[in-house]
Structures are given as C-alpha cells and as structure tokens.
Amino acid sequence: MSETSPASSNASAVTVASSRRWWTLSVVALAQLMVVLDSTVVNIALPSAQADLGFSDGQRQWIITAYSLAFGSLLLLGGRLSDLIGRKKTFIIGLVGFALASALGGAAGSFEVLVTARAIQGAFGALLAPTALAVLTTTFTIPKERARAFGVFGAIAGAGGAIGLLLGGYLTEYFDWRWNLYINVFIAIIGIIGASIFVTSLKRTGPRPKLDIPGTILASAALFALVLGFSNAETDGWDSPWSWGMLTASGVLLIAFVLWQRRAKHPLLPLSIVLDRNRGAAYISVLIAGAGMFGIFLFVTYYMQTSLHFTPVQTGLAFLPMILMLVLAAQLSTNIFVPRFGPKVMVPFGMALGTAGMIYLTHLNLDSTYAADILPPLLILGFAMGSIMPASIQTATLGVNGPFAGVASAMVNTSQQVGGSIGTALLNTLAATAAADYVASHLPPTAEVAAQAAIHSYATAYWWGAGFFAFGAVVAALLFRRIGHGISVASPRGAAPSTDAANESVSVH
Fold it and tell me: What are 314-328's pLDDT values in tens digits?
C-alpha cells in the first residue's frame, strides 16, 4: 500500500484552500451584486408600483431616497460592526435582514410599508456591503489572487447599476414590479448557504475593541444630512433653504467627527486610513466615478425610453455590451495592467476614457441609432469603469490591518454612495435648468421643442459628467503614488499588525 507523501498532502491542502477562496469570492460577489443592483432595479418598477399602490409623484422619490438615506448614513457603522462581531456573523445577519426587508417590500400593500421596507433594506445593505469587501480583504492575501478577486468585485461594483436596469426591465415587463424585491430573497438564500459553508471565521487575537458611540452618531448624522440634502436638491432645486440647511449641517457634523476621531481612544475611522495618500486618492476616485456614472445610467435610460421609445427590456439589453466590456476591462486591468503600471497610471487612464465617452454621448439626437451612436460610447465608458474601479477598490483596502478592514471597506461604499447622491442631484438640476432655458428661448412650446429640450438637457448632463471624469483624471494623476513591494504600510493608530499586512506588504514612493 502506497503512502501519500507530505509534499503531495501539502499540495492537496493548498488546492482545497484555494478552491475555498474562490467559492468565497462567488458568495461575496453575489451579495455585493444584490446590494448594488437594488439601488437601480426598483427605478424601472416605480411607475408600476405607483399605479398599483396609488401614491403621488411627490411621494415617489422616497422609494429611492429611503434606501439611499439608510444605506449611506449607516455604512461606517456597518463596517465597524463587522470588525467588532466578526465578518461571517455580520455577513449572514446582513443577508437575512436584507431578505426579510425585501419580502416585506414585495408584499407591501401601501406606500408607507414599501418605504419602511426600503429603509430596512438600506440599513442591512449598509451592514452587508462593507462586510463583503472586508471578507475579500482578509481572504485573499496572495497579491496575484487578490488582484483577480478585486477585479471581479470591481466589475460588479461598476456594472451593478446597469445589471439592475436590465433585471428591473425584465421583471417589470414580464412578471410584476413586486418581483424586483422578491428576487432578493432567492439571491440571499443562496448567499446564506454559501456563506455558512465557505466564509471562514477568523479568531480574534488580543482584547475586543470597543465601539466609538459618539463617533458613530456624528458620522451617521453627517452622512444622513449629506444624502438628504442632495436628494432634496434633486427634487426642490438648489435654491431650497432645506437643502442648504442639510448640507451645512452635514459639513458641521463632519468637522465635529474629524475632531472627535483625533482624540477618541477607539476611533470609528482612524484618520490614518483616509489620510494615507494612495487610499485617499482611491476614495476620491471612487466618489468621482460614482458621480459621473449616474450621468450614464440616468440620462441614457431616459433618452432611450422617452426619445427613442425603447421598452424597459430593450433599455436594459442596450446596456449589456457595456457590462461585458466593463468585466473584460476589469480582468485585463487587474491581471495585466495594474500589476505593471499601478493605479497612478490606470485610474487617470480610465478617467480620461470616461471623459471621451461622455463627450461622445453629447452628440446624441432624435435621429441617432443604437449601433452607430449609442453603442460606441457605452463600450468606451465600460472600459473606463473597468479601469477605474478595480484599481481604486484594491488600493483603498491595501495594507489596512485586520481590525480595521471593515471600516476601510465601508469608506469605499460610502464614497460611491456619496458620489452617486452628488451626481444625481447636481446633474438632474443642471439638466432641468437647461431644458427650461431651451423652451424659454424657443417659444411657442411645441412637441418638437419639448423633444429637443430633452435632448439638450441630456447633452448638458453629459458635458458635466465629462467634466467630473476630467477632474478625476487630474486628481488621480496628482495624488496617486507609484506602488512597489518591500516595506509595509504604516498601521492605523491603535491597530496591531495583522497577518494581512504581513502577507501583503507594500512601499509607497
């Protein structure tokens, strides 16, 4: 009888561990997709939900805002809780809560129940999203594998909105608007089973850290006021005292939060995490890309449905090539380009491509065709996001010690959420103003004038979106430093060196 050699046993163990890591990635990617697509999947279902439940146009925005307010304001708390009570436990709690909230929303018989369900969804999404990214950060410590994993995660983060439009259109047109919420129950069940089997629990070393209660209250209140201020500006305009009051309050609370973090014994967000030049550049890049991307999803969707009269399903399918290009670019970036050139080259390159794609969109008119006029800029923008997101997300969590992986991951989601809120409010306001000015200068108002005014308003939004990306290219080129290997990144104050930092040490020149 032949004996198995130690070498072959070790090789077998490594293969099993590697396979387990990739199954973990599948579970995490599924959860992240559910959270990201839920910010857009309900958009297409809104008209049907409104007709069914009978709520007003003024109430309609709260179906979207309730989710974004809870999600945006609780992200840092969600990230810290995953650090305190454990990734696996937090991940499963997030999935269960999200599934129950989705079931409640799907069964809603009134506007109030639907809004409540969406707010609960956002709260559990804030628990789930940073935990998912933190699981990746602590699971993939080998640089090459980490790059591939973050390539997949970055592709999902960038494409989730477009996938939401595709799925939302299909479910609304062929089933019922309620299935845009029910579908999450099935996704979450698969995620819970997968997490129970494949996500590992890391044993805590040292004393259990404490939750920074004042910091949590200040951060959550500041983010709540920020998202609410921008959401209100979107509907009531930038001259609304309520909008500016909320934004001012947010600024004051953020300053108070920073001052408190400087003296807190157990800070919610150690300032060294965001003040690291590369991580700071990564967070800013995610924010700017998030703001610019809303110009694509929001206005191209309106353009295709109202100007070219696409159905919801046709609109969703129109974004499919962009998603495929984004996934391809993300894999090329993480496996070839980022290891060779680093984020200092790849992120500005992606931002420059984004600028070109947005400028391309400004040429759309009532006679444009999909193949000649819409598809090329969507492909360019897909490659742009596939170059920006994986490099930024990977850099944002690189070298952060285990006890703070969750809150560092939460900052990625917070940046994207804040960027989306700013982009939606600012671009919507600018587009609405441009449309009104166009009609005022082309009296009398006719159907043709109204149609051209809409085209003009979209073009205005695209130009501003191009400006976001161009600004992002300059900022990224100036802030990012070249990353090499050899010396470990400085630890956040109060954090002990972790195995992650030891396994993945970098130096910043």
Answer: 887 888 898 889 889
Select from 350, 285, 258, 290 the least CA-distant residue to 71.
290
Cβ-proximal residues to 413 (8 Å cutoff; 6+ apart), any chain: 75, 79, 126, 129, 130, 133
Cis peptide upstream of residue 390 (ω within 30 degrees of 0): no
Q: In angstroms, rounded to a whole number, what is the distance separating the alpha carbons of residues 376 and 52?
A: 38
Residue scoring higher pLDDT (496 or 172): 172
241-282 pLDDT, tens per residue? 998 999 999 999 999 999 999 988 888 888 888 888 999 999
- Whole-angstrom distance, CA of residue 40 vs CA of residue 71: 14
What's the burial of 289, exposed, middle or buried (CB within 10 Å: 0-12/13-18/19+)?
A: buried
Give the DSSP letter of residue 370.
Answer: I
Domain positions in the chain: 15-200+268-508, 212-267
Instruction: In whole angstroms, give the CA distance from residue 257 to residue 215.
Output: 6
Cβ atoms of 339 and 151 closer than 8 Å:
no
Q: Which residues lie across from 381 on neighbouring strands?
A: none
Query: Helix, strand or coil for residue 496?
Result: coil
Q: Is the pTM of this model over 0.90?
A: no
The correct answer on CATH 3.90.1260.10 for the domain covering 15-200+268-508 is no
Q: Of 373, 374, 399, nearest to 296 (Cα)?
A: 374
8 Å CB contact between 215 and 263: no
Q: What is the residue whose two structure tokens read 């009888």?
A: 1
User: Is beta strand 506-508 parallel, antiparallel or unpaired with respect to 483-485?
Assistant: antiparallel
Residue 357, pLDDT > 90, answer: yes
- Angle subtended by helix axes 41-53 and 143-174, to nearest 10: 30
Separation CA 133–CA 348 (nearest Å): 23
Residue with the larger pLDDT of the pair 504 and 230:
230
C-alpha distances in Å from residue 272, one per residue of 258, 268, 276, 407, 416: 11, 12, 6, 12, 20
Nearest to 483 by CA among 143, 233, 161: 143
Alpha carbons within 13 A on the beta-carbon side of 182: 10
65 CB-near residues (< 8 Å, 6+ apart): 227, 228, 231
199-230 pLDDT, tens digit each: 877 665 556 667 888 988 998 899 889 888 88
